Amino acid sequence: MLTSGLLFIGTQEIIIIVILVLLLFGGKKIPELMRGLGRGVKEFKDGQREEPTESGNNNTNNKENSNNAH
C-alpha cells in the first residue's frame, strides 16, 4: 500500500521540514503563524461544540411554532 509509507515520518524528514519552514518564513514570522494556527484550531473546536446545541434549539423552537400554528 502506498498510503502506509506516508504515515511514518522520520526524524530526518521532520528536520528537513523545519529547516524549509525557517527558510521560507523566517524566525520572526513563525510564532505569529503558530498563534494563528492555534486560534484557528480553537475556533474549530468551539464551532464543533456549539453546532449540536444550536440545531437542538432550532428543532425545539420549530416544534413549538408548529404546535402554536395548529
TrEMBL record:
UniProt GO molecular function: protein transmembrane transporter activity
Highest taxon listed in the record's lineage: Bacteria
NCBIfam families membership: tatAE
Segments passing through the bilayer: 6-25
Region Disordered: start-end pairs: 41-70
Keyword set, alphabetical order: Cell membrane, Membrane, Protein transport, Translocation, Transmembrane, Transmembrane helix, Transport
Keyword Transmembrane attached: yes
Compositional bias ranges of the Basic and acidic residues kind: 41-52
UniProt keyword annotation of Membrane present: yes
Protein family (similarity comment): Belongs to the TatA/E family.
Subunit structure comment from the entry: Forms a complex with TatC.
Gene (name only): tatA
Compartments in which it is found: Cell membrane
Function: Part of the twin-arginine translocation (Tat) system that transports large folded proteins containing a characteristic twin-arginine motif in their signal peptide across membranes. TatA could form the protein-conducting channel of the Tat system.
Membrane topology of the entry: Single-pass membrane protein
Protein name per Swiss-Prot or TrEMBL: Sec-independent protein translocase protein TatA
Main localization category: membrane
GO cellular component, as recorded: TAT protein transport complex
One BP annotation, GO: protein transport by the Tat complex
Residue ranges, compositional bias (Low complexity): 54-70
